[in-house]
Amino acid sequence: MMxxxxxxxxxxxxxxxxxxxxxxxxxxxxxxxxxxxxxxxxVTGERLEDAVRGLVALGFAGANVxxxxxxxxxxxxxxxxxxxxxxxxxxxxxxxxSTDAAVLDELEFRRAAIVGDGxxxxxxxxxxxxxxxFSRKKAWPPDVSDADLVINATSERDEVxxxxxxxxxLIDLPYPRTATARAAEAAGARVVDGLEVLVAQGAASxxxxxxxxxxxxxxxxxxRSA
Length: 226
What we know:
five-stranded mixed sheet, 226 residues, 10 strands, five-stranded parallel sheet
């Protein structure tokens, strides 16, 4: 139960109703015995700057930022990142971080490729050494045959965008799994699905807000059970 002492964290996005982050983060706060709460906040693009200022005014500890605001919010806060998905509020200042690519810490690879051009694609591009980059605006269709790690950072769920096979790993950002991910798994590729990506970035955000190690197993169980 929330009280006047409860620390608040928000999720800024449009839409936010389908996000599993509130379920995951509130389970994590409870597991660590923290009097914190995570609330979804539907924010349109024209109100984003007001919303960021509102986090300070309302005493929020921070926020996550999701589609379509990750690139825009980076221009409104203190950050060196081009794409921001995590905000931390301290002493009246809002600092921006990117934890979108935290899942990479668990993987080994030699050559990476990114498919997509949104905020998550920008975050992964910043975290990878010289990745190949494909999008409908730049280079299409994707030729990922030389990559052993491919990030699907598009929102396409029903079309198979490219084919993978044994020896290749797909990070599939949308959840539930896309047609591209199902085809890759059937062909023998390893698939790291969007729920694992969500848990990894959420655990990193949790640590930035609280200074406490995230209960990763609790967070994974929360999103998998949903």
